[in-house]
């Protein structure tokens, strides 16, 4: 009877040792690979959303600056467009406190063409004018 109990205890001890074993290197590598794949997919969507948000922010700021330039034109006598965007922050009644940089840290480009025509745009994330990623008002 004692030997049977002892044998039973040994079987239980062996079973508990077997069930308490750690993960193998292959199992750990599989888990890491799955986690990296998920992070890669999520990262693509997150960074894509950030790029679109920056483009949208630049478009809104360009529209606001265009409205300020039109207001400048209407409030000056004789009517004229500013020579540069910094003129919007000057004078006895400035139209804005500051002209912020675009979401990528570059200054907005202001091109005056004629007495009443102008264009404001952002050079985009690459910082080069005339490329595909330039942001213009819609």
Automatic annotation (TrEMBL):
One Pfam short name: T2SSG
Signal peptide extent: none
Transmembrane portions of the chain: 28-50
Residue ranges occupied by any Type II secretion system protein GspG C-terminal domain in the UniProt entry: 46-134
UniProt keywords, alphabetically: Membrane, Transmembrane, Transmembrane helix
NCBIfam families named in the record: IV_pilin_GFxxxE
Protein name in UniProt: Prepilin-type N-terminal cleavage/methylation domain-containing protein
Upper lineage: Bacteria, Deltaproteobacteria, Bradymonadales, Lujinxingiaceae, Lujinxingia
């Amino acid at each position: 009877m004692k030997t049977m109990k002892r044998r039973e205890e040994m079987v239980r001890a062996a079973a508990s040792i077997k069930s308490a074993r750690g993960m193998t290197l292959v199992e750990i590598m599989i888990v890491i690979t799955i986690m990296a794949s998920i992070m890669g997919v999520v990262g693509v969507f997150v960074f894509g959303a950030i790029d679109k948000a920056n483009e949208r922010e630049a478009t809104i700021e360009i529209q606001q600056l265009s409205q300020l330039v039109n207001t400048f034109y209407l409030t000056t006598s004789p009517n004229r467009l500013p020579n540069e965007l910094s003129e919007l922050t000057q004078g006895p009644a400035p139209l804005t406190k500051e002209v912020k940089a675009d979401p990528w840290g570059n200054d907005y480009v202001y091109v005056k063409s004629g007495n009443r025509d102008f264009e404001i745009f952002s050079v985009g994330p690459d910082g080069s004018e005339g490329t595909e990623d330039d942001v213009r008002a819609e």
